[in-house]
User: What shape does this take?
Amino acid sequence: MKKVTAENLQTGNILAKDIISGKGITVLKKGTVLTDKFIENIKKINADSTGAVDNYIFIEGTGDTRAEDDMENKEKMEKELSLLEKRFQHSGKDEFMAEIKEIIKNVIIKNYGGSLS
Assistant: This one.
């Protein structure tokens, strides 16, 4: 899975996650093959957004690039998780800080496909 901006979408990309509008409406479903018209509409949604819509689109790699994308994303996720550990290393046994760290960790994992393995 690769995270890209709407401007970097290309015809033939496959959505790895649903696209949800700022009002909570599913615009396009996971697995949709993007056409020029779909990309145009995604760009309109992002342009009309007041910040409620995620500005990144998750796409699947195709053919040989899928394995490379998966490896690249896993490496990025592991780097972010390592940085998170460093940032919280001095928080000791503070339960509140541990809870915040766990929330951030879950967001990082979710953004990179939901798995450490």
In short: Helices lie at 36-48, 64-87, 95-111. The mean pLDDT is 82.
